[in-house]
Amino acid sequence: MTDTPFAPRTEKATIETGSNLSPKFDAEGLIPAIVTDADSGEVLMLGYMNAEALARTIETGEAWYWSRSRQEFWKKGGTSGQVQKVVEMRTDCDQDAILIKVRVAGNGATCHVGYRSCFYRTVELGRPASPQTALETVETRVYDPADVYGKK
Question: How much is the pTM?
Answer without folding.
Answer: 0.91
